[in-house]
């Protein structure tokens, strides 16, 4: 298997593992900062354990290799997570995830500006088609739309793209260790401005499993993606969560998306599928993405 194919596969698996995240946040139905306090702490612990298992005694050296780029990734991840949880709380799962889907557009612009990467025609076409799907979802006039929630989601998408671009700038270095201080930053902000949510035992168990097991595994896999594929393509694969996240919420919490949301999600999914199949057949290249 080529390095590019490994990058696509690892990132896709990470996104699938991440997809129930919005469902858990909507199910908890608690203050966003209170959830962030424990979500960040559990994420840091879970990811730390995974990194210890992976690197063992080499973990301190792996963390030092991240350098200033790692600090940038940590800040981008931390504030992006803050924006994501706030947006889910204010605007709901579908709106938040669809706005996050513009992350590949932002990643493409950042990579063009700072890394000198060119866009392959198939990637540009996929972005344009996905944008059409996003516009259909945005135009849906479902109740519960929130300007503040949409603004948080936009900030989250921008910082997510920044994280991918920074990781892409040093493809030989694994930036996963940088996510631990990013998660701790989120936790610190959560405890400072929120505290501990009043959750039932099943809700605590769900939060612990999602934040302590699934999130660390998902983000470690996703963070490995930019070492083998572009930040734009990582962002495109994250569109899977845009489709799957609202479906989880619809199925289990009966938060029904409108017809336009379903149509837009179908367009995004088909564009992503076509792009991924074309990328799977393509050999590695650093000139275009």
Automatic annotation (TrEMBL):
Residues 6-138 form the EamA domain. The keyword Transmembrane helix applies. Pfam families: EamA (PF00892). PANTHER family: ACYL-MALONYL CONDENSING ENZYME-RELATED. GO terms for cellular component: membrane. It comes from Pseudomonas guineae. This is EamA domain-containing membrane protein RarD. InterPro entries: EamA_dom, EmrE-like. The chain crosses the membrane at residues 36-55, 67-88, 94-112, 119-139, 151-167, 179-198, 204-222, 234-253, 259-278. Keywords: Membrane, Transmembrane, Transmembrane helix.
